[in-house]
Amino acid sequence: MADLLGLSARIVDDGIWDGPGSVNRVTTELSEVAPGVALVEAFSHVVVFDTGDGLVLFDTSLETFAPRILASLRGWSAQRVHSIVYTHGHVDHVGGAQAFLAEAGDRGEPPPRVVAHEDLPGRFARYGLTHGYNAIINARQFGGGRGISAGLGEGGFGPSKWVHPDFTFRDRVQLTVGELDFELRHARGETDDHLWAWVPRHRALCTGDFLIWFFPNAGNPQKVQRYPLEWAAALREMAAQGAELLLPAHGLPIAGADRIRRVLEDVAGALETLVAQTLELMNQGARLDDVVHAVRLPEQLLEKPYLRPVYDEPEFVVRNIWRLYGGWYDGNPAHLKPAPEAQVARELAALAGGADRLAVRARELAEAGELRLACHLVELAVRAAPGEASLHGIRREVYERRRAGELSLMSRGIFGAAARESAAAVDED
Q1: The pTM of the whole model exceeds 0.90
Q2: CA 308, 312, 315, 316: dihedral to nearest 10 degrees?
């Protein structure tokens, strides 16, 4: 078993940063972090409590990880799985559930009870309506084949079988299993169906994705609305519990009341600052473009090992705050009912002397480090003349350069996908 608590203490206390793999490990190894409490590291972790009357699990990770997770779990305990609590309905948290139900059947035991917030079934229904879209955006975000990159089944987005909850609640509920009480509390954050748990006997928090050891996933550009201010309020409520053990769904567990409180309050403060700055500018009548380029967090905050913009990033959170409080209109009247992008591109290309002039200038800007502007020009060039392989060649160069300079997985995924699109267009030609 790895000394996960010792590792997290060194990272938090000393500000060590050895890259994403040092805090988000996908080993499927089980580590006992307290007597009767274990964590299995996977794409999304599985947190396990021995209650004396069966095991209570928080989340089940992805379907593809479930067999190895089960093997690690059975190396630690032979007790039946009494209950599974979904912290929220994202596929990397619920996808492995069927494996646990199947195991119970093989062992001749009752199936685990599955517990979730009352909004989770609605999420599953929405996934059914948007399965193709979700497969596409996960492939773009994680940079691979549609099924592989989303951790999904052969049919597209999602596991081979979605396991729906047997029991749901609205605001909060207490579950008692064996010797342990679990206080489940709903709060909107990364999702509208999220919960976190307080386990008094262990003075432990199960935080789900409220803490992921990266900058909060509160702005994901391809996903539905997130709720940063309510997220921050939940983190502050957790910080007030005086927990001695924090068990996240991604990243390392943390021990020590002061250390836990510091981490939770730092993340809450970052979200609150973004909301405050964004709303101040919105209330002054600023356009979205002005807001996105004006709102900033202190660099020393983003240098903390649990706030690095490795997955999501503050700029995307600002856009989500605007969407939450202001809708989709960005303040530019030309964007309210715009002309087709291709028509605008052809007009500007004609004014510039041809689409190739735009593309060449985009390459020059990229080489000079003006990558944001370069992307605008190369997109115009390709939209104006989509069949020109030479333009796609330049577009590929620009986005490969752009991707190489980005930190967050989301930016790297989208820019990488753009480069691959143009590479495919060149190959077809």
Answers
A1: yes
A2: -170
